[in-house]
Structure formats: C-alpha cells, structure tokens
Amino acid sequence: MENQEKKKSGFSTAGLVLSIIGICTSFMPIINNISFVLGVLAIIFAIIALIKKDSKVKNIIILIIGLLAIVITLNSQKALSDSLDDLSKDLDTSVNNATGKNTEDILNNYVDVSLGEFEVIEEEYFSKTKLTVKVTNKASEKKSYSIQIEAVSEDGSRIAQDYVYANDLNAGQSQSFDIFTFVSSDKLESMKNATFKIVEASMY
C-alpha cells in the first residue's frame, strides 16, 4: 500500500518538476524545443497520477502548468519564426535593391529620373557631347542611386551606355549629372537620333 502511494506521489512529483522546468524555459528560443517535450511529459504524468487516484488538485495544477509550457513554447517559436521570415524578406529586398532587380519598384516609388536632350556642341577641332540627367530622391530618408542609361538606335540596337551615380541624396533632394560626355566620332551621328532609356536602377 505504501509502495503504491509512493508511485502515485512519484508521478505527481515528476510531473510537477517537469512542468515547472518546462514553463521556465518556454520563453527561451531554441532551448524551448525541450520545453515542449517537458510539458507533454508533465501532462502524461499528471494524467497517470489522476488515474491512480493521487491528489486531484495538485495534478490539475500540473496539467495547467504543462499545457501553459506547451502553449508558450509554440507562441514563442512562432514569433521567432515570423521574426526570421521578416528579417529574410528585408535582406532579400536590400539585396534586390542593390543589384537592380527591383528597378521598377525603385523608379515608381523612390527616385525620379528626368532625361534631358542629347546635346552636341561643335568645337573647332572636336565635338562636346552631353545628356543631362536630373535625379530626385523621393524616399523619406537619405539614399544613394546607381542608374544605367542606354542610347538605342531606331532598330532597337544599343549604341552606347553610361551610368549616373547619385550618392547620399537627402529626402526630396535633386541633383543633375552630365553623361555621354565621351562619344567616339563613329557613333556621333547615331547618338543624335538615339532614344535614351533607363535600363536599371539600384538603391542603397
């Protein structure tokens, strides 16, 4: 009889210890993987003790603590998982912004790029050329932009390309840049009739 009482008490005691450890560690990332198991074991031991007619109140408390350990563990792991997902998405967005994969989004929401007319200024011995590009930062914070611009002929073939590097533009700030300032003589006539378009925009 005494041995049976000890067995009953043993299940309750084990369940209580496991449930307390489980709930105490359920807030700790990674470690709380064990908390889930401890909570389950605590519930099992409490149910066994109840079946064996051990203290009803004590084992109900163990059941509640074990269940809480499981619930807190699951919620904590979900919060960690969501946080890691958000971090991964932010990292992907930053990489795509820096590599030009988000060109359309950048041009629509963050930067305004205005292309002027291609100019040819005839000098005595050579011709000066330029295309003025105005860049305006539409973002609410300081940003830097790299913009690739192509000169395309009527048949759609690329004649030349150049880049604008707008560094550390404050919110709302505009800056103008001259590109295509070095054009070889064999491309000059083609450049006069070229169409200029933005190929890629990067933001960082």
What does this entry look like structurally?
There is one protein chain. The protein has 204 residues and is α+β, with helices and mostly antiparallel strands. The chain has two domains: 2-99; 103-203, Immunoglobulin-like (Sandwich). The protein has five helices and six strands; from the N terminus they run ααααβββββαβ. It has helices at residues 2-25, 32-51, 56-99, 103-109, 188-192; strands spanning 111-122, 127-137, 143-152, 158-169, 174-179, 195-203. The protein has a three-stranded antiparallel sheet with strand order 1-2-5. Strands 4-3-6 form a three-stranded antiparallel sheet. Helix 1 (2-25) runs antiparallel to helix 2, helix 1 (2-25) runs parallel beside helix 3 and helix 2 packs antiparallel against helix 3. The mean pLDDT is 90.
